Amino acid sequence: MAYWLMKSEPDAFSIDDLSAADQAPWDGVRNYQARNFMREMRPGDHFLFYHSSCQPPGLAGIGEIVSAPYPDSTALDPQNPYHDPKASTERLPWMAVDVRFERKFPALLALADIRQLAGLEELPLLQKGNRLSVMPITSEQWAILTTAAQA
DNA sequence: GCCAACGTTGGC
DNA sequence: GCCAACGTTGGC
Q1: Range with top average pLDDT, A62-71, A78-87, A89-98
Q2: Is A90 helix (H, G, I), strand (E, B) or coil?
Q3: What is the distance between the terminal CA atoms of chain A, rounded to a whole angstrom?
Q4: How far is the CA of A129 from the C1' of C4 (A)?
Q5: Protein A25 CA to nucleic acid C8 C1', in Å?
Q6: How many CB atoms lie within 10 A of CB A35?
Q7: Is A147's CB less than 7 Å from nucleic acid strand B?
Q8: CB under 8 Å to A23, separation ≥6 — which residues?
């Protein structure tokens, strides 16, 4: 079982939206490195739900991957904000997974607080200039982050 | 609103 | 295939 961190702008899709829906597709990822990580996802994996581009940014809760990766057809929809004009049914490089709400942290674990935690030096989220929206998390990093979020 | 960092595009 | 210009991400 693997661990992941996935970013979403809460104005578009937040931990509360996932809680209300219980289950939802995680789609709209349009970066190849992130897509490659999504290809490795398996049902039963868990992920940290990160709120980005908000005040303050940080970890909001936990969800579970509940489907295998599948083609992200939102890329084909001209009305979709993540429409990819170069994608077609024959050439659809983007992937989505279905995710399920697990829990919301009692309080957001803010990025500024995450930076203060020891043992996260390798976390891509904290590395300068990193903009990955989907990244793998080690079990050690997972333990540090979920423990801090529960405190 | 600013801007650093990075990815993508397109001319050559 | 290089690389300058441009667009996007996302923290501050």
Answers
A1: A62-71
A2: coil
A3: 25
A4: 21
A5: 23
A6: 18
A7: no
A8: A66, A98, A99, A100, A101
Which class would CATH give A3-141? alpha beta
Report the candidate in A9, A119, A110, A25 with the shortest Cα–Cα distance to residue A63: A25
Instruction: Considering only CA atoms, name the residue closest to the C1' of nucleotide C9.
Output: A131
Average pLDDT over residues A41-53: 97
Give residue-wise pLDDT tens across range A104-128. Answer: 999 999 999 999 999 999 999 999 8
Instruction: Indicate the domain borders of chain A.
Output: 3-141
Phi-psi region of A40 (alpha: psi -120 to 50; beta: other; left: phi over 0): alpha
Look at residue A64 in the predicted model and tell me its pLDDT.
Answer: 98
In the predicted structure, residue A66 carries a pLDDT above the cut 80: yes
Task: Name the token pair of A114.
Answer: 């995450």
